[in-house]
Amino acid sequence: MDEKVFVRVVDNGARAMEEIHALHRQGHVAEDIFVLAHDKSQTEYLAGAANVNTVTMEEEGMIQSIANMFRSRGDELRAKLESMGCTPQEARVYEAEMDRGKVVVMARVRAANRMM
After folding, report:
1. Which residues lie closer than 8 Å to 16 by C-beta, 6 or more apart?
2. Domain General stress protein 17M-like, which positions (predicted)?
């Protein structure tokens, strides 16, 4: 499947919600929108409130998902970002932003849905 990922780094949960609503208005469906924050409970809260996804075993694969149980949070976040299609360098940049309290909102852009 030919997929790319759109990534937006926002300042906080309120901005994440705004970005998620904007993605919905642009035609993205809930199952293709993901939210990720350094704090796991913030990630779960935002995903639940916006009815979108977190990066789970389905996106990561079973081996990465199990490995994440033994990784530091930073390593886990970078692995999740890479499983969504980010390069290792991009994943490091986004993880550093999350260390500073930012939130990452992602949307899968499937080849069939691309308009560019």
Report:
1. 10, 35, 37, 46, 50, 103, 105
2. 6-101
